[in-house]
Design brief:
Blueprint: H1 12-27, H2 42-51, E1 69-74, E2 76-78, H3 82-98, E3 105-109, E4 114-123, H4 127-146, E5 150-151, H5 159-165, H6 168-184, H7 200-203
Antiparallel strand pairs: 1-4, 2-4, 2-5, 3-4
C-alpha cells in the first residue's frame, strides 16, 4: 500500500487553483482515497506538524528499527514520473533484499523533480552488517547511475564515487567545479573533497 502526504502553500487563490490540479491527478488513481484529517493517527499528526514548519524529533524513532543507530541515506533523483518511481523502487528493493536489508524508503515529489530517500539501517557495532551496508550503497550508486538516476546528496565516504558518475560531456561539470575551486579557494582551505571537489594540490591523489 502506498501513502502520500502533501501540503499546499501560498495565497488562497493559488492554493485553490493548485488543489484542483492535485485532486484531479489523485482521483485518477483507481481506489485512491483523500483524507483531510485522520483522528488519533500519530503518523498523520507528525506530518502535519512537520509541514507547518514545527521542528520535532519523531523522525529519529526510525533508529529503533534494528537498533545500533547506524544508517546511510541513498538518495537518487528523477523526473516526477510513476514509471521512474517504480523502476527505482524495484531496483533498490531487490538490492536491499539481496544484501539482507529491509527496504525503508519514501519519495519526495516536486513540480519537476522527485527525490527517493532510502534509509539503509544497520547496527554500528556489527562489523559484518556495517560492511554489507556500505557494499550495498556502493552498488546502488553505480546501478542507479547506469539507469540514469544520479544522487543529489550523500554520505562523505561516497562523494568521490558519486562525483565520477556525473561524467557527461567528458566531465565538463567537474572541469567547471575545479576551475571555480581554484579561483575562489586556491589554497584548498574550504572543505577539501566536499562533493568530490578537491583543491589542485590534492586532486591527483583524490
Amino acid at each position: 500500500m502506498w501513502n502520500y502526504y502533501g501540503a499546499l502553500y501560498g495565497p488562497p487563490p493559488v492554493i485553490e487553483n493548485n488543489w484542483k490540479v492535485v485532486e484531479d491527478a489523485l482521483m485518477s488513481i483507481p481506489g485512491a482515497k483523500v483524507h483531510f484529517d485522520r483522528k488519533n493517527d500519530p503518523a498523520w499528526d507528525y506530518r502535519v506538524r512537520l509541514m507547518r514548519g514545527e521542528p520535532n524529533m519523531t523522525e529519529f524513532s526510525i533508529m529503533n528499527w534494528i537498533g545500533g543507530g547506524g544508517h546511510i541515506n541513498f538518495s537518487p533523483i528523477s523526473a516526477p514520473s510513476g514509471s521512474e518511481a517504480l523502476a527505482q523502487y524495484k531496483l533498490i528493493k531487490q538490492r536491499c533484499n539481496d544484501h539482507g536489508f529491509d527496504y525503508i524508503g519514501e519519495f519526495l515529489v516536486g513540480w519537476r523533480d522527485m527525490h527517493h530517500i532510502l534509509m539503509i539501517m544497520y547496527d554500528r557495532a556489527d562489523e559484518t552488517m556495517r560492511k554489507s551496508a556500505y557494499d550495498l550503497f556502493g552498488l546502488l550508486v553505480d546501478e542507479a547511475a547506469e539507469a540514469g538516476f544520479g544522487e543529489y546528496r550523500t554520505h562523505l565516504a561516497f562523494m568521490d564515487q558519486i562525483a565520477r558518475t556525473y561524467k557527461h560531456n567528458d566531465g565538463a561539470l567537474w572541469d567547471l567545479h575545479h576551475r571555480l575551486k581554484d579561483v575562489l579557494d586556491p589554497n584548498g582551505i574550504l572543505s577539501p573533497g566536499k562533493q568530490g571537489i578537491w583543491p589542485k594540490a590534492m586532486r591527483t591523489s583524490a
